[in-house]
Amino acid sequence: MILTCTAALLRAWAGAALGVVLAWAGAMQLRGEDIVQAQWIDVLLAVLLLATAEASQRLVLDRRWWVRADWPLLALAHVTALLALVGAGTGSSLSLTYVAVGLVAIAFAARIRARVPEATSYAVLGTALVLVGAGSAGPGWLALALAVVSVAC
Questions:
Q1: Burial of 105: CB neighbours in 10 Å, binned 0-12, 13-18, 19+
Q2: 42 with 80: CB under 8 angstroms?
Q3: CB under 8 Å, gap of 24 or more: what pairs does 71-74 form?
Q4: pLDDT higher than threshold 70 for residue 149
Q5: From CA 77, how far away is CA 70, in angstroms rounded?
Q6: Is the pLDDT of residue 7 over 60?
Q7: What would you report as the CA-atom Rg of the chain, rounded to the nearest whole angstrom?
């Protein structure tokens, strides 16, 4: 937390974001094995990092690359989402994690829709993650996900 506060005061946003992730990793290790297996916490942290990146983009008017606060937060959100996908395990944990990360990717694609190549790649990846998660949940969920995708297209 000292790293986060010091870096925020110095406007070294990459250090502040790194401090947040280090505090999160330490809290996960202190809580025990049952909370480490809960991948929804990783997804929640990725959503919070994305929301903080969005807020910092709107609040910090200086656009120099070393002052911008949104890029380090965005990079760390990607790392935590990938860690959630890697540690998803099997069964319902895999289904819920893949669907949640896929929906976050689709929402992020909707947010950056003005940047067409990036938004397209996030939307396609998010749709694929949702379909993989629905497919591992069962054939009925896969059929429902395919129906929603066909309506959305």
A1: buried
A2: yes
A3: 71/13, 71/14, 72/13, 72/14, 72/16, 72/17, 72/18, 73/13, 73/17, 73/49, 74/49, 74/50
A4: yes
A5: 10
A6: yes
A7: 17
For residue 112, what are the contacts with CB-CB under 8 A and spacing of at least 6?
118, 119, 122
What's the Cα-to-Cα distance from 110 to each of 47, 116, 119, rounded to whole Å?
14, 10, 7
Q: Identify the pLDDT of residue 87.
A: 79
Contact 93, 39 (CB under 8 A): yes
Which one-letter DSSP state was computed for residue 114? Answer: T
CA dihedral 31, 130, 81, 46 (to 10 degrees): -80
